[in-house]
Design a protein that fits this description.
Layout lengths: L1 E4 L11 H13 L7 E4 L5 E9 L8 E3 L3 E9 L2 E6 L17 E3 L7 E5 L3 E5 L4 E6 L7 E10 H4 L3
Antiparallel strand pairs: 1-9, 2-3, 3-11, 4-7, 5-9, 5-11, 6-8, 6-10
């Protein structure tokens, strides 16, 4: 898991800077009024999902995990909390959906690490890193606009 300012993305790019640059260029140049939807950056292995929604209270949120894709999450507007959990501290909540590359886990707030996401920050979750996005910062849900870059593990990780 990586949590940092957008301007520091190169610190983490290693030998795959071209892929990471495509991802962060999209985030940094995305206008606040960008339409919700999927934007292909390099086919099905590198794309952006843009969505507008209201944050949720913790009890309406779920911990998710991906096996094939890396998530780079950044907000264009609003604020939210993303909780990170070591997967070893969690109990699976249902079966893993290989088509959607997503599995869910029961919350364990004893091991959860809160990350405040606001414009200018990003959080990256690698395969098998559990995270609970979209949680409201205050007790009242608020609107946000988010970009989630999906990077297939084969583009940047050695197996």
């Amino acid at each position: 898991m990586i949590y940092d300012y957008l301007e520091n993305w190169e610190t983490y790019s290693g030998t795959k800077q071209k892929i990471w640059k495509q991802a962060f260029d999209f985030i940094k140049t995305a206008p606040n009024d960008l339409k919700d939807g999927k934007y292909e950056l390099a086919g099905e292995k590198l794309y952006a999902n843009v969505s507008s929604y209201e944050t949720r209270i913790i009890h309406d949120s779920r911990i998710e995990l991906h096996r094939e894709f890396i998530d780079v999450q950044a907000l264009l507007s609003g604020r939210e909390i993303i909780f990170y959990n070591p997967v070893t501290t969690l109990k699976r909540d249902g079966k893993f959906n290989t088509v959607k590359d997503c599995g869910f886990y029961e919350r364990n707030m004893d091991t959860a690490v809160p990350l405040l996401l606001t414009p200018g920050f990003f959080a990256t979750f690698f395969p098998d890193e559990a995270h609970m996005p979209c949680v409201c910062y205050a007790e009242i849900p608020e609107p946000v606009k988010k970009v989630v870059i999906k990077i297939h593990r084969s583009l940047v990780l050695a197996d």
